[in-house]
Design brief:
elongated, 2 domains, alpha/beta, about 350 residues
Length: about 350
């Protein structure tokens, strides 16, 4: 019994030395919190270190259109300039399809670390939301705006065999034969598509849309006479205008262009006050890209588009460098453009078939 009593006393003493359950839980919770804070601090330190080294490997720029078009041309100009400035390669990744929405969807789902960027444009960022029911990205929520790049006017081109030597004659011909003329575009939802839909609405004419997979195919069929009209960005239109393979009727800018002073604007040539189509391009990153990375890229882009070399290369393509904007200002511009083209789509009835 005595031995038993000693065992009992020893056990009771051991129990007595244990901290109360609540105190033990508090201690464990405190240790867990300390560990979590340590992990968070370590992760934050690692992220800050990574951001301070940015970029320390090549950057992929997703261009959602085929090589050779205006999107690709502008992307390669800015990509080369950024490569030289940041001492790191900017690799152009052309991902064409679905009017540019396929490539932008790929970029939206990329890791938000600053090493995958998206080349945005009027069509894929501002127009597509009004036309596609199941767009694979939300242009406002899926991206962090970085900076605008350039603006480009377009030219109304017709096949040489068409009996129309001016915008006024083209409109008259379309009105006399509703639905008999075809117009081409680089794809549904592109600037060519919506720019012509705006023309149809304002001029009260009816033409049939023929979408292609890229501007090169659309121009080829315009030259061949399979389609009669194409509103094409100036840079890719110029070689064909100079060769005489197509006939230029008017420019889509608000005023005449120094590079084509003999061409009137659509507004003046067709008596359509207010008609204007300027295509813009900009750089985007996936949403949740670290703010310091976005700001760093904004500074680099503004430096690039402000340089005489880039401005000259843009001018050779008929493009004008955009005005400097902060990421917030660029985001506000994007939201305004989305609202504008949503109204054009509503009035014109444009849709993606």
């Amino acid at each position: 019994m005595a031995a038993g009593s000693r065992v009992t006393r020893s056990t009771n003493a051991s129990v007595a030395r244990r901290p109360p359950p609540r105190r033990r839980r508090s201690a464990l919770a405190g240790a867990g919190l300390a560990a979590a804070l340590f992990v968070c601090a370590t992760a934050a330190h690692a992220q800050a270190a990574a951001e301070s080294r940015y970029p320390d490997r090549p950057i992929r720029l997703v261009v959602p259109f085929p090589p050779g078009g205006i999107n690709d041309l502008v992307a390669r100009i800015i990509g080369q300039s950024l490569s030289e400035q940041m001492k790191q390669s900017v690799v152009i990744d052309n991902r064409a399809g679905a009017g540019g929405t396929l490539g932008l969807g790929i970029a939206a789902r990329a890791n938000p670390d600053g090493y995958t960027l998206a080349f945005g444009a009027t069509s894929t960022v501002a127009v597509s939301p009004a036309l596609y029911r199941n767009l694979p990205y939300d242009p406002v929520k899926a991206f962090a705006p970085i900076a605008p790049l350039a603006e480009v006017p377009s030219v109304a081109l017709v096949t040489p065999s068409l009996p129309a030597n001016s915008m006024k004659e083209l409109v008259a011909l379309a009105r006399s034969k509703p639905g008999s003329l075809n117009y081409a575009s680089a794809g549904a939802g592109t600037s060519q598509h919506m720019g012509t839909e705006l023309l149809k609405t304002m001029a009260r004419i009816d033409m049939v849309h023929v979408p292609y997979k890229g501007g090169a195919a659309a121009i080829a069929d315009l030259i061949g006479g399979q389609v009669q009209l194409l509103i094409e960005p100036l840079p890719t239109a110029m070689p064909h205008i100079k060769s005489g393979k197509v006939r230029a009727l008017a420019v889509t800018s608000a005023s005449r262009l120094p590079i084509l002073p003999e061409l009137p604007t659509v507004a003046e040539a067709a008596s359509l006050a207010g008609y204007e189509l300027m295509i813009w391009f900009g750089l985007l990153a996936p949403a949740d890209t670290p703010r310091p990375v976005v700001q760093h890229l904004n500074r680099e882009v503004l430096k690039a588009i402000g340089s005489p070399e880039v401005r000259e290369r843009f001018a050779q393509q008929g493009a004008t460098a955009s005005a400097a904007r902060t990421p917030e200002q660029f985001g506000a511009f994007i939201r305004k453009e989305i609202a504008r083209w949503a109204e054009v789509a509503r009035i014109s009835g444009a849709k993606v078939d």
